[in-house]
Amino acid sequence: MKTTHGHHSGNHGTRPGGLSVSEDGYTLEFDATILPAGAQTVTFRVSGPDGRPVTAFTPEHEKELHLIVVRRDTTGFQHVHPVMDHLGTWRVEVTLEPGDWRFFADIRPAGHDDAMTLGIDVSVAGPYDPQPIPGDTRTSRVGEYTVTLDGDLAPGAAGDLTLGVSRNGRPVTDLQPYLGAYGHLVALRVGDLGYLHVHPDGEPGDGVTEPGPGITFMAAAPSGGTYRLYLDFQHDGVVRTADFTVRAFTARPDAAPGHASHAAHH
Fold this sequence. Notes:
The protein is mainly beta. The protein has 2 domains: 22-124, Immunoglobulin-like; 134-263, Immunoglobulin-like. Helices cover 0% and strands 46% of the residues. It contains no helices and 21 strands. It has strands at residues 7-9, 22-23, 26-30, 34-35, 38-47, 65-71, 78-80, 83-84, 90-96, 99-107, 116-124, 139-142, 145-150, 159-167, 170-171, 184-189, 195-199, 214-219, 225-235, 238-248, 261-263. Strand 13 (145-150) and strand 14 form a beta hairpin. The radius of gyration is 18 Å and the shape is globular. It starts with 6 loop residues before the first strand and ends with a strand.
């Protein structure tokens, strides 16, 4: 299996993205930031330095905008792709439970040198039942699939994270391309939801990148602490999400991380 290294979208070096609603004159503006619970369509815009909605974006991984939605207790993760009208208004359906949420827009405005990630808080009305952050979880079960995480996060030092996918105990060797890659990985820092978005360098069909069972990324944590990781992968025509909890240490701890299973949140 070829090792493929990824890049960070929405941050520079080890600086996390998504902590600000505005960056370099671009601002994320939602029509409503207090929403009801349940399935619904949300609408928003990205305004530019001139104050007008931006209508031209450079596609990143086959989409002009990636919207990541997660409750602040790190449950309810959704990676969706809104559709923009000619006036610059984006629309997408999401399903929300009561609580405090963070919405991240991963974009690269046309003519801008770098991708950026803007973040905004959204409150969803109703009784809030926050869930505890899972302990160190290196195995995630999603239906018939088991995904294992190998590798460590270290503050300021890039290292490999390899996600191995199996189905009913057998390695999956025919992962399907999803948005131009065999896997998409998002990491969120527990406490402030500082955002990292990493992808493999290799591309399906490049003659060297194999379609599983391993998907390898290179990632550097912006600081020590606990991180929640979410892997999107596609098999048999369905995109699934596996989630993990890892702790970033300045030096590798003496004890090996524990291995536990944890079902992915949707």
